[in-house]
Amino acid sequence: MQPTAFDELDLQLLHGLQIAPRVSWARAARILQTSPVTLMGRWDRLRSQGLAWVVAHPSGHDEVLTAFVDVDLEPGAHREAVTALARDPRAMSIEQSARGRDLSLTVMARDLTALSRYLLDVLPSVPGVQRQRARLALQIHRQGRDWRLNTLDTSQREGFEAARQHVAPSGRHLPRDPQPIIEALALDGRAGAAEIARATGRNPATVRRHLARIVGSGALSFRCEIAQDPTLWGLNCTWLIRVPEEAKQRAVAALATLPEMRLCVSTTGDTNLLVAVWARSASDLMRLERLLGERMPWLSLVESVVTLRTVKRFGWLVGDGDRATGEVVAPAVIGDATNAS
After folding, report:
1. Residue 247 carries which DSSP code?
2. Which of these, 57, 63, 56, lies nearest to 115 by C-alpha position?
3. Mean pLDDT (the chain, rounded)
4. Does pLDDT of 99 surpass 60?
């Protein structure tokens, strides 16, 4: 049997970071009853091996539009198109699918005009792109950052929740010229003031103040991403579901009971729910789909799309074994002044 890449303390640490991605090592050590040095060493190993990383990306506040874009590529042009899109900061996440589409992109846009310009003018100009179809997110019921490992006990979860509340949004106003700090956080969502000051050449005291305002503003969303270890979560699958509008809330509540569910979004299109799950194996995925039919017969699973390869997760390039390569293309909202739309 293939050994897992994570031991019990690794999984506890990662569950804690899922809850509070920027918790201090001292506080995390008190919760887990170990030492800060132990946790720092664990995190350094996990991060250097591409097994876990903390992402900082635009939060989607202020009525930002999120869209899921299916892209068909010209035969023989996959490598060229994937390379170009991986370097595009507006393509925040990229997955290669088993059927129905060659690529699935996640993008955010400041408004419909900016999104339309990207979809109709920019994306078709990428070498190898043949056509695209987009689903607009109407309501995000569950995000990837909400998915949990469930390896902590109640007291430990409460401890990390308290740590998360300690850095909860405190105001909506960003400091002047926040971009260098935001870019540093995109490279490492756990970066502290001293690290960012060294990287940007700014005054440490000024960076500390500005960092607190940026984190507290809610402009960025922080999440602990974990490599898809085949011994724990062998399959990444997206369900495209059609459900009567009057039954949608009931369906969302029922789907939320599945510990495998990472994402649940109401969308436009011929299906109106998009759900992403991590299953342990093909047989486990079959069990989940059978459970769906038994518990919710009024729900129609129109398409079940298995991801063959993840290219990028919110700016972080992903390589073999679903591990982060360490290379980051800082994600950008389409239509923002800092990037071309």
Report:
1. G
2. 63
3. 92
4. yes
Report the predicted TM-score, pTM, of the whole model to 2 decimal places: 0.91
Both tokens assigned to 341: 């739309």
Please, is 116 exposed, middle or buried when counting C-beta atoms within 10 Å of its C-beta (0-12, 13-18, 19+)? middle
CA-to-CA separations, 42 to 13, 163, 328, in angstroms, rounded: 9, 20, 22
Q: How far apart (Å, rounded) are the C-alpha atoms in residues 66 and 268?
A: 11
CA–centroid distance for 116 within its chain: 23
For residue 250, give both structure tokens.
């009931």
3-state SS string over 61-109?
Answer: CCCCEEEEEEEEECCCCHHHHHHHHHCCCCCCEEEEECCCCCEEEEEEE
What would the DSSP string read from start to end of 170-238? --SPPPSS-HHHHHHHHH-TT--HHHHHHHHT--HHHHHHHHHHHHHHT-EEEEEEE---TTT--EEEE
How many C-alpha atoms does 64 have within 13 Å on its Cβ side? Answer: 18
The distance in angstroms from the start CA to the end CA of the chain is 49
Using alpha carbons only, how large is the chain's radius of gyration in Å? Answer: 20
Number of DSSP helices (H) and strands (E) in the chain, helices first: 11, 12
Q: What pLDDT is attached to residue 234?
A: 84
Name 158's Cβ contacts closer than 8 Å, sequence gap at least 6.
Answer: none
Q: Which CA distances in Å does 224 have to 15, 18, 197?
A: 9, 5, 23
* Confidence (pLDDT) at 98: 83
Give the count of beta carbons closer than 10 Å to the beta carbon of residue 324: 23
Check residue 341 and give its pLDDT: 46
Ramachandran bin of 192, using left for φ above 0, alpha for ψ from -120 to 50, beta for the remaining angles: beta
* 141 DSSP β-pair partners: none
Residue spans of alpha helices (H) in 243-315? 248-255, 282-295
Q: Which two tokens stand for residue 273?
A: 């729910």
pLDDT confidence tier of residue 338, bands split at 50, 70 and 90: low
The H-or-E segment that residue 267 falls in is strand 261-267
Task: Locate 39 and state its tokens.
Answer: 């946790």
Which pLDDT value is given to residue 27?
Answer: 97
Q: Which of 14, 18, 19 is nearest to 164 (CA)?
A: 19
